[in-house]
# Entry
Amino acid sequence: DADMILDDRRRVMRIQPPFGDPRMVKFKKIRVYDHDAEKSVDYLIERELGYDIVELQNVTSVKKIKRTDDGKVRKDVDEWCAHAQLPKSLQHVIPPKALTWIAYAEWIRATKTINFRIEPIVLKNAVECSGRTTYSGDERNRLVRDFEISINVKLPVLGQVAENFIIEVLKNNERQDDELCKKILKRMDGGGV
# Structure
């Protein structure tokens, strides 16, 4: 099933984002790139000729744990490490190890959608984070990227502070990702960088 993924504990987990959940903080951004949609998706997603993810300002490393691909769906499990200046109110609650998480992602070729779920190493039962990125072509066959993410931090009092901080970091990552994608797509079309 395309909206399920198996983890190392051999239990099935849904990674379809719960966008209807009112408790979650959400962020959505649609970007349109003046580049051929099919060619761009092939270049960025299928052939993975984009940028190295550690070019994002707050990402320290990404380590591949597992990849499977049945030709219809490619599933990845990666360990991400980040660095960030936590707000003072969170520094006594959230240890540095909390900036390491496991990302479960699946690229569904039929819908050109990446569904993802993020599971922190620390406070894993207190944080729900998932999202989706969908690629399509507009009426002029330009690439359209629709990114959305939801997060819920279930900590008394500090949960909202943590959610707002994380969403701001993710917004900054999305802006950086947009700039890097523009450069990559320009290079794809032979325009150099």
Notes: Residues 67 and 76 are 5 Å apart (CA to CA).
